[in-house]
Amino acid sequence: MSRRERIEAMLTDDPSDTFLRYGLAMELDKEGSHEASLEHLAGLTKDATPYVPAFFMAAQQLARLERVNEARDYLRVGIEEARRQGDAHAAGEMSEFLASLGRAGE
Fold first, then answer.
1. What is the pLDDT of residues 5-39, one digit of tens each?
2. Which domain of life is it from (predicted)?
3. Superfamily per CATH, domain 3-100
4. Tell me: the pLDDT tens digits for 94-103?
5. Rounded CA gap, 8 and 32, in Å?
């Protein structure tokens, strides 16, 4: 059984487990199943308490896929959410990554 399959099996017992959902998204990314990975990350960003690392990981994945404008959108929302949750470290990391992507149209 692969790591992804083990995570999926554990999710059947607790489908709302944030860390398992995040782990599944990361495994899907490693497997090259980017759209499925991004769907899982998007779900994590829409939870009642959005999972801040999901914004950053989605943005990094989108940037690797050369979908930079979408990456910027995730970062902007993620920075605000990190600030709202009092996570200055995550807000700072995402701000730096956003700056490294340059401005739209560059």
1. 999 999 999 999 999 999 999 999 999 999 999 99
2. Bacteria
3. Tetratricopeptide repeat domain (1.25.40.10)
4. 999 999 998 7
5. 17
